[in-house]
Specification:
Layout (H helix, E strand, L loop, with lengths): L15 H27 L6 H25 L5 H11 L1
Helix pairs in contact: 1-2, 1-3
Amino acid sequence: MNNEYIKEQLVTERTELDKESELIRNIISTREELKCNNKNFEFADSDLVDFYVYQIKANQAKLDYLLKLAKARGITIDLISQLRYEEEIS
């Protein structure tokens, strides 16, 4: 019966740089999702308009929250960093 349980493993803490990198990647990907949702909304059939309105509102709220977190941590995204992180995502 002891063989059925998996031994717990210690989860390593992420460094501040890792947390900042992840936050920036999330900001960029959320912004891209928002752009995509806006374009899809423009060409949506009447049945999908409500869906894209919901998606736009949800992604806008998420982006606002992430930007608020970044501002509180003093993180600024310059063009060079943005391009570098966009290349990592692709």
